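Quick illustration, no need to memorize.
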Amino acid sequence: MLSNMATSLILHKRISTTLAKAKELKKFVEPLVTRAKEDSTHNRRIAFSYLKSKDAIKALFGEVIEKVGTRPGGYTRIIKTGFRLGDNAEMCIIELVDYNELMLKDAQPAKKTTRRSRRSAGAAVEAPAAKATSAPKAEAKTEEPAAPEASAESENEEK
């Protein structure tokens, strides 16, 4: 059963199953993807002994590794979808991580739209007040060095 589910996951990139099966499938598939990172005859034969499908091996060592080959692990994602009506089994979707285009698109704008825009608007309002308070400090600093120079000039005149 795990062999067939792993083959379906590799070929279709996403399958719907029960949560218990998905958790076991994750343990079954992730070592295969790790092994597929190094494309050798030995690794292909070991993967074939698990999957028993030439098409799945071609997809695994070809397009799947192109997308997830740079990851150090965590090649699959389990998303819970609710409960099945017949027996109330907990259902989920298991998918290969880099193939969910919707989540990839949502993740990128979410990083760009942060609270910074609100803070920058608030900081822009506060910035003139901050500049007003920092300006006298700057003037005070410029006045202080001027005072010792004036005293140095007066000492030179006295001598």
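The chain has a mean pLDDT of 81.
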